[in-house]
Every structure is written in C-alpha cells, then in structure tokens.
Write a structure and sequence with these properties.
two-stranded antiparallel sheet, 2 helices, globular, seven-stranded antiparallel β-sheet, 11 strands, 35% strand
Amino acid sequence: FWVTQRGNKEPIKKYEQLDVHIVDARKWRGAYGTREQKAPSCASPDAGRTGKLHPEFGALLPVKFVNGQECAIWPLNLWGTGKDEGGNPTRGKFCGERRNLLALCSDFDDPIVVSIPTMSVGRWDAYVDGLVKVAKTHFSTQMTRIGVEMVERDSQAEYGAATFETLGYLPAETIAGGIALRKQFKAMLGAII
C-alpha cells in the first residue's frame, strides 16, 4: 500500500507491511455523488453519527441530505443502495465506511492516519474483536503489523485487502505515551481522507 502525506500529490513510500502502535481508531463515513470527486459530497467526521455536506459537491448526491442529519437513518446508508462502476445496483451501501487509525510508526516523526477502506473494515473489526475476546486486551496495547493481500471478489476482480497481526504487547510507558497523544491528534481521525 502507498503512504501519502496531506498536501502532496505523490506518495511518500510504498509498503508491503507496516508495524505500528495504533493509539486510536474512529469510524468514518462518506458519500460521493460521482466517482471523479476528490472529496466526498457528504462526510461524517464524528464516528459515523452525523453527516456534513461539502459546500460544492453536496448538491451531487442523488437524495437530499441536510447538514447534521443522522447517518444511521439516511436512505443511502442502507444495504442494497450501492452502485458498481457501471451504475448498476449492488448489495453494498452508497455510503462508504472506513476506519481511520491514528498510529505511531518508527518510519515517521509524527503520528500517521492509516485509513482502512470499506472492503477491509470487517477485517479490522475482527482483529479488534479477537484481541478483546481472546487476549482480553485493547489494540492500543499491541504492536500491530498492517499488511495487504490480494483477494478475489465475486470471481471477478482482485483488490487489496488489509491484514492485521499482533506482534505482542508494548511496554507500559509506550502505551501511556500513545494515550497522551490521543487528545492532541484526535482531529486527524475525523479529517476527510
């Protein structure tokens, strides 16, 4: 996967895997009126609860949306409202859902946001659930390896899906340092990615 920096058009570096300390994670939803858009028509920076219209692209949505409307009750955030590249209906949702992870990585001086795309959200959720149910721990206590594997979808096209693997517990002082950074960099998780 490619790591990019906000404001730069070119990726910084390509990684097959990245070892990170994930200090926070947030749900993010967005709806795009057209595939060519660089920014979503509507985005939900508050963990997927309410939406905020883009001043320019908001009018491109096929269903009227009001700033601050609850995402959970918006008609295009329901299963079966998705569209494929040809505009044909799919089982998915019109709104894309991601997980934005605030992470510390030895390759970077500042915290980074790893944005997990829709097709990998289930893998992230399974990783977190496994840590809680099996190890009785939280992702912020672990060093995590994020990778990519190619997966075939509906016997058609391949896509890159994120993989998650725990590399073990972090030292207590590292965990405490990560917790302190949560408040300072929390706004990064709600940014439009």
